[in-house]
Amino acid sequence: MTKKTILSFVLALACLPSPSRAALKVVTTTQDLAALAKEVGGEFVEAEPIAKGYQDPHFVEAKPSYLLKLRRADLFIQVGLELETGWVPSLLSNARNPRILPGNPGFLDASEGCDILEKPKGPVDRSLGDVHPLGNPHYWLDPSNGLVIAQRIAGRLEQLDPGHAEAYKANAARFEAALAAREKAWDEEAKGLKGLKVITYHNSWPNFARRFGLDVVDFVELRPGIPASPAHLRSLTAHIRSQKVPVILIEPYFDDKLPRKVASETGARLVIAPPSVGAEPAIVDYFGLFDRILELLVAAAPAGTQ
Amino acid sequence: MRKTVLSLLLFTPPAAFAGTSALQASNLLNPNLSVIGWMQGEAGRRSPAAAVPAPSAFSLKEAEIGIQSVVDPYAKADFFVSVDGDGAVDLEEGYLDWFSLPGGLSLKAGKFLADFGKFNRTHTPETAFADRPLVHERFFGEEGLSGTGAALSWLAPTPFVLKLDAQAVNSPASAPAFGAGRKKDLLYIGRASAYHDLSEAVNATLGFSGAYGSAGLDFDPVTGSSASLVGRMAGLDLTMRWKDPHRSIYRSALWQTEVLWGRRGAAGASATGAKGFFTHLEYQFARRWRAGARYDYTELPNDGSVHEAGALGYVTFMPTEFSLISLQGRRERRSNGEKENLAWLKLTFNIGPHGAHPF
Fold this sequence. Notes:
Strand order of the largest sheet of chain B: 1-2-3-4-5-6-7-8-9-10-11-12-13-14-15-16
Distance between the termini of chain B: 35 Å
Structural class of chain A: alpha/beta
Order of helices and strands of chain A: HEHEHEHEHHEHEHEHEH
Number of domains of chain A: 2
Helix content of chain A: 40-55%
CATH class of the largest domain in chain A: Alpha Beta
Order of helices and strands of chain B: HHEEEEEHEEEEEEEEEEE
Number of strands of chain A: 8
CATH topology of chain B: Porin
CATH topology of the largest domain in chain A: Rossmann fold
CATH superfamily of chain B: Porin
Structural class of chain B: mainly beta
CATH class of chain B: Mainly Beta
Strand content of chain B: over 45%
Strand order of the largest sheet of chain A: 2-1-3-4
CATH superfamily of the largest domain in chain A: Nitrogenase molybdenum iron protein domain
CATH architecture of the largest domain in chain A: 3-Layer(aba) Sandwich
Oligomer: heterodimer
Strand content of chain A: 5-15%
């Protein structure tokens, strides 16, 4: 190959037409954030998640193909609170897109303004497991936080695309009204869940539990991110028996072998619930996520609590 | 044109990079500090033909100190300092990286591991092995191919991931495939790599690398003058990964193969050609367990007529993502025909927010 041919090839690559700029390109770390961005962005936004709802958002590989999405993004939204600390920093620093770096209008940390639980009061270290020093990052599982996130995304879209500001405002208002109506229905459905004792696999349900009145009494993991030891499993079994815990709640990306064994030994019911939009193919939006979790919990809760 | 580039540089919006959250932002002026400890036990008798001197039964191979921070709105800096058990300090890498240049470009200046192949960019404690593949050890030395200079990287605007890297560094004295020539001699390295998701669970990276530089000096006793000898290398690497995203923390597999060809100038008009390769397969069979095997073959860069070959196997337990303990065994046939059997216990542990490895 001659030098001239190589040069022409490089120039041809550099001059490839950039994709259509009609819609704002929003890239989010999780499918929940993409669903909320679609709610308020409507037809003027193309929202795409990096991690799918069935993936564990703590452990996502920083694949180079994600750089292609990020390179063209106008807005990047992350859950924050160090949920994505293992993969987002290296993706952002390699994306060659200064618009979406922290400190710019194209970067949005969705946790700001949300009600964050379990912020450590004292010093933390890794002897506590995969503890999040800024608070529990699973905050999207409370619809009132979902509303805050949607409103903040709408605000940022207005800033980035002032020409469609009215549409974003209207979409946000419509989402707020729809969410308020749906929350009434959810509250009605979840009446029987008040005080329901549950054991969860990972500490990812505190916002959901507080919102719908569940009582999380223990975890399958010894510490966040640390698998259970045989001694811990024995204490878990004793805990379920002594406190009559009727439900073990786990995410679909965890191995259900141990929780299933504990459930069968104690008579507790195992509920494999989706923690995110897209965790099951039928869950295509933020409303569908709560519909499904509540449906599963209500079906599993003993008759006495309903 | 120069004015346009300058304006783009100056008006690229500022980017605070060290932290991506409100609390971390308060620590922006402090660099991220991390230390990786690497301790190793060794059993077995090393062949006298081995280039590496026999270590004690237990050794603190290295404490790798990482200091990483944003420098200004346009650049970040990474330093990796290694201190071995005897107290010898070495700057493994230390560079400034302008990561948000326009046009998909980034520019690095300082001392860094060369983008030759895929394996070379990884520091030994962060690899799966207690050693480095034979071909890398023989051609690039124990620490890998590195140098001080500049590196330009371009992420091409193609529908698939295509990255082109061009680097120029001072001629490295410790890489046997090359050699110290004149003071101002440079080593040029180029790499083209493509990445593709074959499915949601399987992906492949294919790379071609080339290097051209000085391989020492040819002294002419008649004229009393000396001329730089030339060393050339080419490399081909293929990495395939599998990980089911539905069960990402429990099962994964990796297959990596690198083939290297070298041609080193020698005194007189002759030159030596040599080649080598390694292939590595790893399977994660439980959340905290991995097993792997590697096969090595290499000719010597200064003598392509003799070769060494070996195989390594290991089982690794990772209590968490911040520490691991690995039992490894390697059988090798050295260039003089001697057999060498070694066993290792590798222990690494990580404190602080050490940066992610190159994927």
